[in-house]
Amino acid sequence: MAAGKLQGYAEDRIWYELAFTIGLTNGLNAVADALRLPPEFTPARDRTPLIPLVDPDAASPEVKTVFDEAAAFFAMERPPTVLRALAHDPGYLADYWVALTGIFADGTLDRLTKAVMAFATSVTAKSEYGTDFHLREMRRLGASELAVIEALEVIQLFSGFTKIADTLRLTPDFPVPRDS
To answer: Do 81 and 70 contact (CB within 8 A), yes or no?
Structure first.
C-alpha cells in the first residue's frame, strides 16, 4: 500500500480491494490447480480432477442455490468447476461464495479492473485454470484483444524486472514508510 500512496493514491479502500482480489484469486487458483481441475473454457491435457466434483443436478438445495448464483454471476451455463470441488462442504462453499462475490463485485474498483488483476495474478502464478477463467472474464466484461495484449505486456515487464531484481538481490533504494 505504501507504493500506491507514494504515487498519490491515498484511499486505502482501493489497496484493500486489490489485495483481497489478488489473495482470493491466488487461493482459488491454488485449489483448482492442485486438484488438477480442467480449465473452464479451453481444452486441457491430462487434467482429471483428483476428487469427484459435485453434480449440479444432484446437489442439495443450499448448494444448488450457490451454483445457480455463480452461473449467473459469471454468465456461465454451469457453476465454475472450482466451486463444484468446494461443494463437498456446503457451509464452506456458502461462506466462500459470499467472499468471492464480495470481492469480485463492483466496488471502489470495477469488475473489469478486478478481472484484469486476477488474470495478472493467474499468469504470474502459471495457473492454467486461473489464466483461462480470468481471461474469459476480462473478455466478457469488455476487455478488447488489445487490452489483453497490453495486460500481458505489463505482466511480462514486471515479472522480468522482478526476476532481475531477485537474481541480483536488489533492495529498494527509497525508504518505505511504515504505518504507525
So the answer is: no
